[in-house]
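Minutes, project check-in

Agenda point 3 was the complex the collaborators sent over. CS summarized: two entities, 267 residues total, and the question is how they sit relative to each other. Sequences were read into the notes so everyone works from the same version.
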Amino acid sequence: MGLDAAFWIMAVVGVAAALSVVFLRNVFRAALALVLCFITVAGLYITLSADFLAAVQILVYVGAISVLIILAIMMTRDVQKGSPFNKMKFPVFVIAAMLLGIMIYTVTATPWAISSEAPTSPTTVPLAQSLFSEQGFILPVEIAAVLLLAAIVGAIVIAREKDK
Amino acid sequence: MSVGLEHYLVLSAVLFCIGLYGALTKRNAVIVLMCIELMLNAVNISLIAFSSYIVPTLLTGQVFAIFVMVVAAAEVAVGLAIILAIYRGLTDIDINNINLMKW
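CS then shared the predicted structure for the full assembly.
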C-alpha cells in the first residue's frame, strides 16, 4: 500500500516535471524541472527495490549531469530566446501520441511472465558480483571505462579554446 | 488495483514519448539534449521494472541500466562540448540555424 502510494506520487510528479521540461519557456526553469524528474525517477527505483541504482541516479544525474546542463545554459545565456518550438510541432505530436498508444497497447496486451520471488535486496553486493566476476560483465565494464575516457578527452578537445 | 509491471512500463512509455516530442520539436540545442536524457531515463525505468518483476534474483536489467547511465553520461559530456563549440563559432544554438552541413 505504501509502495503504491509512492509509485503514484512519483509517477504524477515525474510526468508533470517532464511536461514542464518540454513546455516551459524559460530554459533554466526547464533544467530545474529536469532535475525534479530525475529525483522522481530515483524514487521509482527505490519502489522497484533497486537501492544502488537509486543512489547512482542521484549522484550521476542529479549531481553531475544537471550541473553540466545548467553550466551549458549559463555559457550560452546570450542567446536566450527561451525554448521555442519548430514547425514540426503538430506532426510530431501526432507521431508521439501514436507511438504512445502502440506502446501502451503492447504493454497491456502482453501476458508478462511475472515471477513470484521477492526481489534481491540490498542489491549492491550482487550487482558488484555480476559486474566484476569472471562469468559476468567484466568485458563490458572495461569497454565502458574506455568509452568514458574517450568521452572525457573528446569533450575537452572539442570545448577547448583554439590556440591563437 | 495494486501497482504492477504494467504501471511501470506505461509510465516509462509516457516519459519516453514526452522526451521524444521535446527532442523532435524544440529549437534550443540544450533543451534537445535534456529531452534525450528524459528518454534514456524512461528506458532505464522499464529495464529495472523488467529486472525486478521478471527475473527478481538475477539483476541483469539493473546491470544494463548501469551501462545506459555510463553511455548517457558520456553522451551528455560530448554533446554539451559540441554545443559550446558551435556557440563559440556561430554565437547561436538554435538548431534551425545550425545548417552548415545541410545539403
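Noted in discussion: Residues 5-90 of chain B form a domain with the Helix Hairpins fold (CATH 1.10.287.3510).
Follow-up: revisit at the next meeting once the mutant set is ready.
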